Amino acid sequence: MPGTSGQGQGGGRINTPPEGALRAVRSLVESQQTEQATQLYEDLGDAQRERLRREAAQRPVRERRGLVEVLRRARDFLGAAKLMEGDGEDATVADLYVQSGQYLEAAEAYLRAGEAERAAAAFERAGALERALEVYRRLGARESIAQCLVRLGRPFEAASLYRDLGQAHAEVEALGGVKPEDPRFVEAVLRMCTLLDVEGFTHRALAVLADAVSSSEEARADATLVKEKARLLRRMGMEAEAEAVLLRRAAATSTPVASGYRFLKAIPIFSELSLEDMKDLYRLARQVVVEPGDVLLEKGAPGTGLFVLMEGTVDVFSGPEQDARHLNTLGPGQYLGEISLVQDAPVSAHVRARTPVRALRIRRADFEHFLDTHEAAALRIYRLFTQNLAARVRALSS
């Protein structure tokens, strides 16, 4: 029949004019025929259901509760929540809003109900992250604050919280979200490398560092990241690779210097070597980079070979003590440890880098092999070494 709606208990239509829908539902609720009332409500059109809800909102609380149950059974959770607004049952209203997917309304209802944690979680689900953060701060829920900060794109702040909480893994994950354009990017990378290395994941730390320098020109040029890479390589026993990293950095940032070959050639004990012997000796030399404050030669330790300074300066002290006497300062072209090349004796002075130093190094073992395989050169070196030593003795005696 036109203008009717609803179904009876036997599945037939209930002849209910639109304006009588609320009356029919109310009648069924009052007679505790909740299931039939639910079926009738489900059978109404959208406009009729909206009208019914508006009219129901004007009814007394007791009657509205019966209608709320109908709406809940019909899965109209949003309509049920709105009917219950203002009845003092905010927690139930909030749950209904959650069921209807209205998380922002749910959060506000949870706040009214005094359930701040559930309110903050609902704010998060609604995407209202600043509101969620505000509630979490009031609660002092630091872990939730950190998670919220990550979602807000503030990973460095989140990492600081995780650090305070002692959650190294979460701190690393948060720091991984710091973008290359962030002014604290290098700081974040260095912190990640430290944490991973301490936890035994040095390989992963190197991978993080490699990704950082490939994604940012600033990071690629940063001296602290270069030093960190060298440190991690040394941790893995890769001394040669570490030295190569530092040398590339030194070559990229320094002004041109005189050839290491010319410095080596100028040392008195090598002054009579032939071109071929001199080239062979030079091929034994390895370039090393020493950071300010690092010790090149330790007094009393076995001599390890010759250092020829190409860049930077070193200070020579009478010993390793803080109050040791300062004996000399040496710079490019000067050399250290030549006596250890031909004599097995402890180092007689303590040498420390004053500035970044680049030097040629010839190890004693390599030099002994050179002498064994270059007989003529060995004779010339020993003769000149003896003459040089005698001249030093005379100078001290006079």
UniProtKB/TrEMBL annotation:
<dbReference type="InterPro" id="IPR000595">
    <property type="entry name" value="cNMP-bd_dom"/>
</dbReference>
<dbReference type="Pfam" id="PF00027">
    <property type="entry name" value="cNMP_binding"/>
</dbReference>
<dbReference type="InterPro" id="IPR011990">
    <property type="entry name" value="TPR-like_helical_dom_sf"/>
</dbReference>
<protein>
    <submittedName>
        <fullName>Cyclic nucleotide-binding domain-containing protein</fullName>
    </submittedName>
</protein>
<dbReference type="InterPro" id="IPR014710">
    <property type="entry name" value="RmlC-like_jellyroll"/>
</dbReference>
<feature type="domain" description="Cyclic nucleotide-binding">
    <location>
        <begin position="269"/>
        <end position="388"/>
    </location>
</feature>
<dbReference type="InterPro" id="IPR018490">
    <property type="entry name" value="cNMP-bd_dom_sf"/>
</dbReference>
